[in-house]
Design goal:
This protein folds into 2 domains: 130 residues, ATPase, nucleotide binding domain (Nucleotidyltransferase, domain 5); 171 residues, ATPase, nucleotide binding domain (Nucleotidyltransferase, domain 5), CATH 3.30.420.40. The strands form 2 sheets. The chain has a 5-stranded mixed beta sheet, sandwiched between helices. It is α/β, with parallel strands linked by helices. Helix 1 packs parallel to helix 2, helix 4 packs parallel to helix 6 and helix 4 packs antiparallel against helix 7. The chain has 9 helices and 10 strands. The two termini are 26 Å apart. It binds 5'-O-[(R)-(carboxyoxy)(hydroxy)phosphoryl]adenosine and zinc ion (ZN). It is found in: Cytoplasm. This is tRNA N6-adenosine threonylcarbamoyltransferase. Belongs to the KAE1 / TsaD family. Its EC number is 2.3.1.234. It comes from Dyadobacter helix.
Length: 332
């Protein structure tokens, strides 16, 4: 059984082949063009997806040693994401499924991030909690089955990935700044500067206040010392990263306490952050949690996670028809 999966929700064009229970290929074309604009430019993302999609799908088939006639179904990201970007992957998947006369499977990108944990062993057992942290989302998801998920906490404003990227922008680092903050944080003192923690009720998050306090803090310091950022870059990155991780893990601890669940996973682009991975492992040891952290390649956007989500829908006969359209916003 062979499923082709296509991901085009943001700035990565990716295709993967799932063959007999395993990922046989996973090809990702990252769009570098956005770094010069300090963020993803939707129109440029759509155009780059148009350029990349055919060679990326072609390579995924070749890497898996599969031809298009061997395919049994095509899965694609329906949303959430940038509408123009999603349209490219959706139209491509629909056209190819129509031409090959095979079923089409729509996949929710955020569910797929969670299901990335089922690509390799060890796999979490149900129920588990997944902290899904990306450039567009920050969610605590209670997962009771492969396709049964409930968001029990989420951000009410910015996503944590945005907080990383916007801080990086203030520090004059290129987009996406999250990985660079991670890199410099390793060289700095996380207790050098203190930032106030947001007060959000329940399991929800807020990251817009911290972004503003970082901005005011930097403006004040730079007025006193124009070289402040250059002189303290590592300490600033370490302190900001420490604060963002602290906000995430405090809520995750609360969610575990309230649900009594001790199977804990992280997913999404920010789960590539080494400070978060380390802090979560430490917390897991302390609280006797079983921790699940995805391989780096399955943290940021990729089609392998779309393929695994597509597989679960395939075995449930959960297909869509040619009238399907992408959705920029999409609930589970
Ligand atoms: O899941 P993803 O690839 O795309 C979305 O669906 O948004 O996540 C991208 C986000 C960006 O904000 C990026 O800066 C962040 O993940 N990110 C990181 C790291 N690697 C990626 N943030 C902090 N540390 C990292 N190592
Ligand atoms: Zn994502």
């Amino acid at each position: 059984m062979n499923i082709l999966a296509i991901e085009s929700s943001c700035d990565e064009t990716s295709a993967a082949i799932f063959t007999n229970g395993k990922i046989a290929s996973n090809v990702i074309a990252t769009q570098l063009i956005h770094s010069q604009y300090g963020g993803v430019v939707p129109e440029l993302a759509s155009r780059a997806h148009q350029q990349h999609i055919l060679p990326v799908v072609d390579k995924a088939l070749k890497d898996a040693k599969v031809t298009k006639n061997d395919l049994d179904a095509i899965a694609f990201t329906k949303g959430p994401g940038l509408l123009g970007a999603l349209l490219v992957g959706t139209s491509f998947a629909k056209a190819m499924a129509l031409a090959l006369n095979i079923p089409l499977i729509e996949v929710n990108h955020m569910q797929a991030h969670v299901l990335a944990h089922f690509i390799d062993d060890p796999k979490p057992s149900f129920p588990f909690l997944c902290l899904t942290v990306s450039g567009g989302h920050t969610q605590i998801v209670k997962v009771t089955g492969p396709l049964e998920m409930e968001i029990i906490g989420e951000t009410k404003d910015d996503a944590v990935g945005e907080a990383f990227d916007k801080t990086a922008k203030l520090l004059d680092l290129p987009y996406p700044g999250g990985p660079l903050i991670d890199k410099y944080a390793k060289l700095g003192n996380s207790a050098a500067f203190l930032f106030p923690l947001p007060e959000m009720p329940g399991l929800d998050f807020s990251f817009s206040g911290i972004k503003t306090s970082i901005l005011y803090f930097l403006q004040k310091q730079v007025r006193e010392n124009p070289d402040f950022i250059r002189d303290n870059l590592h300490d600033i990155c370490a302190s900001v990263q420490y604060t963002l991780i602290d906000i995430l893990l405090k809520k995750l601890k609360k969610a575990a306490r309230e649900t009594g669940i001790t199977e804990i996973a992280i997913a999404g682009g920010v789960s590539a952050n080494s400070g978060l991975r380390q802090a979560l492992s430490g917390l897991g040891e302390k609280l006797n949690w079983n921790i699940y952290i995805p391989h780096f390649e399955y943290c940021t956007d990729n089609a392998a996670m779309i393929a695994i989500a597509g597989y679960y829908k395939y075995v449930n006969n959960d297909f869509c028809d040619q009238t399907v359209s992408p959705m920029a916003r999409m609930a589970f």
